[in-house]
Amino acid sequence: QLQLAESGGGLVQPGGSLRLSCAASGFTLDYFALGWFRQAPGKEREGVSCITSSDGSTYFADSVKGRFTISRDNAKNTVYLQMNSLKSEDTAVYYCAAVYQYCSGSPEEIDYWGQGIQVTVSS
């Protein structure tokens, strides 16, 4: 059974940091671009970041550039999202996503989703 499982979410104060992890089981991530989406209450799901499988190129939404980094460890079948300088507007459910070969910011093109994990930025 193909699964993506997120961990590392929670409550953090503005300006703080969190690292999300996403572990894959049931398949290898070698040929998949891996990304993170988020969805805040009342808003559409939006792409946050993505890392390719071929050369490790990374992409970030303008709202998180300079604050978030993404990395992957194919040996551990895991992708990470390091979130620094968190703001209240980063509060959302974060979803790990895998898409075959190429990064995509469109939820309709995602092949596999994690179940989502809550990130709350609040004092």
Order of helices and strands: EEEEEEEEEEE
Largest sheet: 7 strands, mixed
Instruction: Report Rg.
Output: 13 Å
Span of the ends, CA to CA: 39 Å
Number of helices: 0
Q: Strand portion, in percent?
A: over 45%
The average pLDDT is 94
Kindly name the structural category: mainly beta
For the secondary structure, the number of strands is 11
Helix content: under 10%
Low-confidence stretches: none
Write a structural description.
The chain is mainly beta and 123 residues long. It has strands spanning 3-7, 10-12, 18-25, 32-39, 46-51, 58-60, 68-73, 78-83, 92-100, 112-113, 117-121. The strands form two sheets. Strands 2, 4, 5, 6, 9, 10 and 11 form a seven-stranded mixed beta sheet that branches. The N and C termini lie far apart (39 Å).
Compile the SSE list and pairings.
Elements: E1 3-7, E2 10-12, E3 18-25, E4 32-39, E5 46-51, E6 58-60, E7 68-73, E8 78-83, E9 92-100, E10 112-113, E11 117-121
Short characterization:
By secondary structure, the chain is mainly beta.
What features would you highlight for this structure?
single chain, 123 residues, mainly beta, seven-stranded mixed β-sheet, 11 strands, 0% helix
